[in-house]
Design brief:
Tryptophan synthase alpha chain; tryptophan biosynthesis; 12 helices; alpha/beta; amino-acid biosynthesis; 9 strands; lyase; TIM Barrel; tryptophan synthase activity
Length: about 260
């Protein structure tokens, strides 16, 4: 069984929600990425998304775009990130998911990408700009190597939700608002209607992301889905740190607060 399935099953038995955290691989460097994964797991993260830096991340807001630029400026490549995941797997079995743009996967080689993901221990992949017409090739390789292709839906998906989610696995990434990633003070989408519509088409766990930026927001919105995703707010904590020790302390403390907020 895939680690993502095992984690959601475990949380369901405990009647808990999943805390899914995001960082950009290589920001500020890959050694820190490795240590941040371990720190976030220790602090309560259930699943961790590792962003593969890309020059034109259209689904991301300024915070994550800038983190991608910082990583790329240091020459971070997919092969370096794969090596880092291999090192993480020597110390942790937390579910790990890549967030990668289609061109990155295509350039690396679709079969090679999923084969190496399997070898190093990646459990799932989110490709926010994956064209529907290209999905079959991606699905074929993801299924061949038991690396889940995670569906991503938005409030505007409506009539396409069934098509988008029918072959996805692991969890459904439910974008909470139209637009790009980024911290927000509130979410205006009718989440009850939106998540209810997604649930009509799939039994796969749903995780709510884009805009959840504080423990209060995580607590407010946790009951709409099976998990919450926090990314930009964590990337900001990394950027604000003046040393690796401060980054670890700030991120660890923030993740702990987030986890406690969805347990209460």
């Amino acid at each position: 069984m895939n680690r993502i399935d095992t984690k959601f099953q475990y949380l369901k038995e405990k009647n808990e929600k999943a805390l899914i955290t995001f960082i950009t691989s290589g920001d500020p460097d890959l050694d820190t990425t490795l240590d941040l994964v371990l720190e976030m797991e220790k602090s309560g993260a259930d699943i961790i998304e590792l962003g593969i830096p890309y020059s034109d991340p259209i689904a991301d807001g300024k915070t994550i775009q800038e983190s991608s630029k910082r990583a790329l400026s240091k020459g971070i490549k997919i092969s370096n990130i794969m090596d880092t995941v291999k090192k993480i797997r020597e110390k942790s079995q937390i579910p790990l998911v890549y967030l990668a743009y289609f061109n990155s996967v295509f350039t690396y080689g679709v079969e090679r990408f999923f084969k190496v993901c399997n070898e190093v221990g990646i459990d799932g992949v989110i490709i926010p700009d994956l064209p529907i017409e290209e999905r079959e090739e991606i699905l074929e390789e993801s299924e061949k190597y038991n690396v889940y292709l995670i569906s991503l839906v938005a409030p505007t998906s409506k009539e396409r939700i069934k098509e988008i989610t029918e072959k996805g696995k692991g969890f459904v990434y439910c974008v909470s608002v139209n637009g790009t990633t980024g911290t927000r003070s509130s979410i205006d989408t009718d989440l009850e209607e939106y998540i209810g519509l997604v649930s009509e088409h799939t039994d796969t766990p749903k995780a709510l992301g884009f805009g959840i930026s504080s423990p209060d927001m995580a607590k407010k919105y946790k009951d709409y889905a099976d998990g919450v995703i926090v990314g930009s707010a964590i990337v900001k904590k990394i950027l604000a740190g003046n040393s690796k020790e401060e980054i670890m302390r700030n991120v660890g403390s923030f993740v702990k607060e987030l986890k406690e907020s969805i347990l209460s």
